[in-house]
Amino acid sequence: MEYLSADKIAVIDLASRKVMEDELDEDLVTERIGGIGITKHLYEKYADEDPIVIGTGLLTGSLFPGSSLGILTARSPRTNNVCHAPFCQHAGMEFKYAGFDYIVIKGVSETPVYLWLHDGIADIKPADEIYDMTPWEIVDNKKGLRGKLGDELIQFLSVGKAAEVDTNAAQVLVNCWSSGDRWGFGRLFGEKKLKTIAMRGMGLMEVADPEDFLDKCTDLVSLLTQNPALAKKGCIAFPAAMGAENIVDWIAPLVHRHSAAFNTPFPYNTFVKYNEAPTVMKESDVEEPGVMITDIAALLGFKKLNLSAEQACRMIEACNKYGIDPTAAAAMLEKSGAGDFESMQKQVPGLKENTQDAGTTPFSPWCPSQPLFAAFDGATDAAWWQRRQAVAYIFGIDPIFAIMAPEITEAKLIEAVTTGTELEISADTLEDVIASVIS
Amino acid sequence: MGLKFDSLKCTSCMACELACGYHRDEALAMLASSIVTYRNREKKNYFGIMLKEPENLVLSRPEGWKSNASVSWMKTWKPTRPPNPSCSGRPAICVKMKKRDLSA
Ligand code: SF4
User: Which of A122, A245, A293, A332 is paired with B60 by a 20 to 30 Å CA distance?
Assistant: First the structure.
């Protein structure tokens, strides 16, 4: 596969420590497009070996707005169905620039390991030194893997101690922060003795018609400047937009800055500071001034437990360090009659839950289930949301941005990949792939 | 062509870095980019933009801009290439860049 691709699928067997590599076949892309079209195909191919499949869309890492998405596909311990968890920030694009379109992780390692994906090479490395670390320690520029591997921009998909206990709420984090993994995929990492996946690369991806691809992307960017979402900032603006309580005033005294996932025009990650003044813009000596809010449901979950904004944010930090899905943790604490803040903080490292969800969709509820800020034509019901998610996950578009940007139409996505790859990908192909991933 | 940075408006989305690399290589690659988002201080949420010139480095930091910069994390930077004449004339993907001096 020559264009919009790293042209590589790696099958990584943790049991035998062997890595097999294959090219990404153009016929497969013509048939399944990419993203979850292909991660699901690879999952089914290796289903007997309980794989975790990781991949990106054709547009991931490209000039197309919102192109930040990476996907984990596996059987969820929470639903017992094959589900997809999004990872964005800068990790989706880094996976692709590290030289991989897809990896299949199968088998169970005898001893703790981590994967080091760099410049088209997949190394299986011993994880003894980092096994007891929190996700925050793993990324550390000095003592963690960024320090050890000599690159402060390495991106990680990590698990914490929650992955070693019997809980379906263990989460795969992006660096220090919560991801869209609401499926308990952290537990699967733990079972495989896989502590983290470190990713970094300086890859180059060719575009079949670079001039036309650029024009299509810049035209879309121009259209997006009219989108009302661009006047808002942060996931803290979501609840009011969804007709729920406006929490902006509640959290505002802690807000430092908002940041965006790769090439995504809406900065929905909200960083809050509570260990130094949020107004401090200079780099200070405070190593851990606060936490990044990446999942609004988690913040709302802790707010519901009558915590102050600072306490709610500190709970998210505690969950991130332990490696547990903070939204699930808030629900567990609510159910058990959590007590006060100090008692809740103490409970985090022991939180466990193995209840099963009904699992009505393979897409993560991390993404709000209705349009945000902008209006879409037609019904915007559960079927709309599911289709919108499927399309985003197929092409590599940030699923949250997808529900804010009606300008990103299916036709425009198809045009972009057709221009970018010169492959024949039609609306009928997309229809077939959507049907196969929703079924 | 001049570049205007407003680092307080920057969201660390990397679109400028990607666009610069694309202008140079007509491909998706950030190795060749002269605009680099620095995001090495993730836990501190400290980020901004660097512009690499052949003999100079301009930092657009949240607290203000700085020319002739030299900082400890240079080891992770990519090699500098001279400006590409073909950069002029094309619209930038992001229009958020504007120089800002907060030290005044
Ligand atoms: S300067 Fe603009 S395009 Fe560049 S990273 Fe910041 S927000 Fe993104």
Answer: A293
